[in-house]
Specification:
Number of strands: 16
Structural class: alpha/beta
Largest sheet: 8 strands, mixed
Strand content: 25-35%
Oligomer: single chain
CATH architecture of the largest domain: 3-Layer(aba) Sandwich
Distance between the termini: 33 Å
Number of helices: 10
CATH topology of the largest domain: Rossmann fold
Number of domains: 2
Radius of gyration: 20 Å
Order of helices and strands: HHEEEHHEEEHEEEHEEHEHEHHEEE
CATH superfamily of the largest domain: P-loop containing nucleotide triphosphate hydrolases
Strand order of the largest sheet: 11-10-12-13-9-14-15-16
Shape: globular
């Protein structure tokens, strides 16, 4: 991540305080602004407080939030009305900035936000090569198995997914280069900014940005004919139905889901049947007991452990 990308949306006084923390910006994960509350950030997986010149926790002001909104929206929040319906804006570099405040409703749906009081900056990181260790276990005869990444929130599943897509698209020693379709509902995988990918997803990848997963998967199959279809965070019944449709159409599926363990995944009604029927051939379980993105295990479709990082052996 380039420091100047995030510097463009931060008030100068905030940036100066962060600089005093002597941060390595590639390990900065989140920054949270809440009016009248301490300024918090997540660094190397740990929550920390920004302190002022007196050594006290810095309290976020209305001016801080207002200034950030101006920078993020280029002084025209209404120009981002479509994005604000989703509650966030993606800025250059693929960084996602979520906002909360008073919703402006129209016909029972959110039209925009006003009186914004909270801002959540989620920093996009590319970790080239982080997926190297999983490929021997999710491929066979240079083809990809249907694979589901299972992870609690904040454990690096999107980072892993991103590098897997890149390597599948370009090809490596384990898999031949494959045409890959990405349905990026929240602009987190490709980090598209004004229609252009900010993250490297490979030479054979097409991205459908800002579209619902269920609708987007069907659109990609019909329009782009992908060999591999990748989505982040399937969690609704229509998502599961679209995944099954894609599999029946011959696409190899690469997806992620929230769960803290294989047992928890099996208990979730949405996934219980898929796991029981062995729809996915491989499950990659992530955790953060030692570090963010720790591969705690890779399992086959029957739940047999195939791989575990050495720390857990």
């Amino acid at each position: 991540m380039h420091k100047n990308q995030i510097a463009r949306v931060l008030p100068g006084r905030i940036l100066r305080m962060l600089e005093k923390e002597h941060l390595e910006y590639e390990y900065l994960q989140e920054i949270r602004f809440r009016t009248g509350r301490p300024l918090l950030f997540i660094y190397r997986g740990e929550e920390r407080t920004v302190r002022n010149d007196h050594g006290n926790p810095y309290q976020v002001t209305e001016e801080d939030v207002r200034e950030m909104v101006d920078y993020i929206s280029h002084y025209s929040l209404y120009a981002y009305e479509q994005e604000m319906k989703q509650g966030f804006i993606t800025v250059e570099g693929g960084h996602r900035i979520g906002m909360a405040g008073q919703a402006i409703m129209e016909n029972g749906r959110v039209k925009n936000l006003k009186y914004i009081s909270s801002i959540h900056v989620r920093l996009s990181h590319e970790v080239i090569g982080c997926a190297d260790q999983v490929f021997p276990y999710i491929t066979g005869n240079r083809e990809l198995y249907h694979t589901l990444i299972v992870s609690p929130p904040g454990c690096g599943k999107t980072t892993l997914l991103r590098d897997m897509i890149r390597q599948i698209s370009d090809g490596n020693r384990w898999v031949k280069g494959m045409t890959t379709g990405v349905v990026d509902e929240r602009s987190e995988i490709g980090g598209c900014y004004r229609g252009l990918q900010q993250n490297d997803l490979g030479m054979r990848t097409d991205v459908l940005d800002g579209c619902s997963k269920a609708e987007g998967m069907i659109m990609m199959i019909r329009s782009m004919g992908p060999q591999v279809l990748a989505v982040d965070e399937i969690g609704l019944a229509e998502d599961v139905h679209a995944v099954e449709y894609a599999m029946h159409c011959g696409c190899r599926m690469l997806a992620t889901a929230h769960a803290g363990s294989m047992e928890e995944l099996r208990r979730r009604p949405l996934f219980a049947q898929m796991v029981k029927e062995g729809r996915f051939d491989r499950y990659i379980l992530l955790g953060n007991s030692r570090r963010v993105g720790q591969v705690e295990g890779i399992f086959d479709g029957r739940g047999t452990l195939l791989y575990r990082e050495k720390e857990y052996a």
